[in-house]
Design brief:
- The protein is α/β, with parallel strands linked by helices and about 400 residues long.
- It contains 15 helices and 13 strands.
- It has a seven-stranded mixed β-sheet with strand order 3-9-8-7-6-4-5, with helices on both faces.
- The structure holds pyridoxal-5'-phosphate.
Length: about 400
C-alpha cells in the first residue's frame, strides 16, 4: 500500500471506530416527496428542497430553454469572458427580491461565504461569529486572518461583551446564520442589529435556510423582521428552497462592486451554468405566484413536529420546519436512521463535525409537497423504529 494511503486509512479506521465514518448514498431519481434508493421508493425527509421546486416542471423548462440558448457552461470566469446576460438578469431579480441595490451570484454558498468574508475582513479586523454558524462561515472567517471571536449560540449579551472587547479593531463584522441549518432556530437579529449600531459594526447574515421559508414572499428572516436595511450583507443560496444551485450576496452597489473586485471565490472561478441561473430565476417567479407553497411547508413542519413530540421524541428548539430529533451519540443516531430506512424513510443522521459532539441527531425536513399521508407514514415509522431501539416508550 502507498505510504499516503496507509496513513489516511488509519484515520478512516479511527472514524469507523468512532461511528463517524461517512459514505455516499446513491439516489436514483429526481428530488420529490419520494425518491428512488436501491430500487425502492422511499419517503425523502432529509432534503433542503423545502418548497418542492428542485424538480418542478417550470424550473426544468427554464433550465432547458437557457441551455438551448446559452449552452451548458458559461465558458470562463465572469470577469474574463463568462458574464452571460442571464447571470446579470438573475442578479437583478435577486436584488429586487431582497430589496437591495444590487446582488452578485456565486458558484455556491460555500464559495459566497468564503469569498465575502475574506474580501471584507483581514488582519486588524474582528469577525464576531455565532458558535453554531455554518462551516462555510467558519472557514471564511479563519481564512480572512481577521481576529475571530466566537460568541455563544444566540447569546446577544456575550456578543455585546465581545464587541466591547473588539473596540480597537479596524472593522467589526458580526456574522450569523439567520436560520441555523442543523437546529432550525433563529438568530436574535433585532438584538444583533441594535448592537451593531451601538458598536459601529457591520452585519452579515447567511439566509441559506431563510430564503423561501421565512418572511414576506420568502425573502428571508431580515425581511420578516423588517430589518433589510439594517443588514449590510445578505447572503443566501439558490440550492435549497429555490431548487437550483449557486448562491448570492445582496446589498449596496458599493458592496457588490467591491466583491466583484476582491472576492477571490468570485474572481477566480467560472460563472454559474446558464441552466442553474435560469432555474433559480424561475423559482423566484414561482414563489411569487404560488405563496401557498410556503404555507404548506410550515403546516407540514407543525404537523410533523407535533407528531414526533407526541410520540416522545426530543426535538431541539427549532422555530422553523427544520426538525432536529436529538439523539446524542453518533451510533444510536445512525441506528435510528438505519431502522427508518428499513421502513421506507430516508433521513440521514447528522454527526460531528457537522454538529457538536454529543448532539448527534436526525435532521427531519418535510417539504411543501409532502401529503398528510406521507407524514403519517413517516410518523408511524419513527414510532416503530424508536420503540425497537428503546429511544421512546
Ligand atoms: C447556512 C448555510 N450556509 C451555506 C451553505 C453552503 O451552501 P452551498 O451548499 O450552496 O455551498 C449551507 C449548506 O450547504 C448552509 O446550510
Amino acid at each position: 500500500m502507498r505510504l499516503l494511503d496507509h496513513q489516511i486509512k488509519a484515520q478512516l479506521d479511527q472514524l469507523k471506530r468512532d461511528s463517524l465514518y461517512r459514505q455516499l448514498k446513491v439516489i436514483g431519481s429526481e428530488h420529490g416527496p419520494r425518491i428512488s434508493y436501491q430500487g425502492r421508493s422511499l419517503l425523502m425527509l432529509s432534503s433542503n428542497n423545502y418548497l418542492g421546486l428542485a424538480a418542478h416542471p417550470a424550473l426544468k423548462r427554464a433550465a432547458i430553454a437557457a441551455t438551448g440558448r446559452y449552452g451548458t457552461g458559461s465558458g470562463a470566469s465572469r470577469l474574463i469572458a463568462g458574464n452571460l446576460e442571464i447571470l446579470g438578469d438573475l442578479e437583478q431579480k435577486l436584488a429586487t427580491f431582497k430589496g437591495t441595490e444590487a446582488a452578485l451570484v456565486f458558484g455556491s454558498g460555500y464559495l459566497a461565504n468564503l469569498g465575502t468574508l475574506t474580501a471584507l475582513a483581514g488582519p486588524g479586523d474582528a469577525i464576531l461569529s455565532d458558535e453554531l454558524n455554518h462551516a462555510s462561515l467558519i472557514d471564511g472567517s479563519r481564512l480572512s486572518r481577521a481576529q475571530v471571536m466566537v460568541y455563544r449560540h444566540r447569546d446577544a449579551d456575550h456578543l455585546a461583551a465581545m464587541l466591547a472587547e473588539a473596540r480597537g479593531a479596524r472593522r467589526r463584522i458580526i456574522v450569523t446564520d439567520s436560520v441555523f441549518s442543523m437546529d432550525g432556530d433563529l438568530a436574535p437579529l433585532i438584538e444583533i442589529v441594535e448592537l451593531a449600531r451601538r458598536h459601529s459594526a457591520a452585519v452579515m447574515i447567511d439566509e441559506a435556510h431563510g430564503v423561501g421559508v421565512m418572511g414576506p414572499g420568502g425573502a428571508g428572516l431580515a425581511a420578516a423582521l423588517n430589518l433589510e436595511r439594517e443588514v449590510d450583507v445578505h447572503m443566501g443560496t439558490l440550492s435549497k428552497a429555490l431548487g437550483s444551485y449557486g448562491a448570492y450576496v445582496a446589498g449596496s452597489r458599493t458592496l457588490i462592486d467591491f466583491l466583484i473586485n476582491r472576492a477571490r471565490s468570485f474572481v477566480f472561478t467560472t460563472g454559474l451554468p446558464p441552466a442553474s441561473a435560469a432555474a433559480a430565476a424561475a423559482a423566484i417567479d414561482l414563489i411569487g405566484a404560488e405563496p401557498e407553497r410556503i404555507k404548506r411547508l410550515w403546516d407540514n413542519g407543525c404537523y410533523l413536529r407535533q407528531g414526533l413530540l407526541a410520540a416522545g421524541f426530543m426535538l431541539g428548539p427549532s422555530a422553523t420546519p427544520i426538525l432536529p430529533v436529538m439523539i446524542g451519540e453518533a451510533q444510536p443516531a445512525m441506528d435510528l436512521a438505519e431502522a427508518l430506512l428499513r421502513r421506507g424513510i430516508f433521513v440521514t443522521a447528522i454527526r460531528p463535525p457537522t454538529v457538536p459532539a454529543g448532539t448527534a441527531r436526525l435532521r427531519v425536513t418535510p417539504t411543501a409537497d409532502h401529503s398528510r399521508a406521507d407524514l403519517d407514514e413517516a410518523l408511524a415509522a419513527f414510532i416503530a423504529s424508536g420503540r425497537e431501539l428503546g429511544l421512546i416508550a
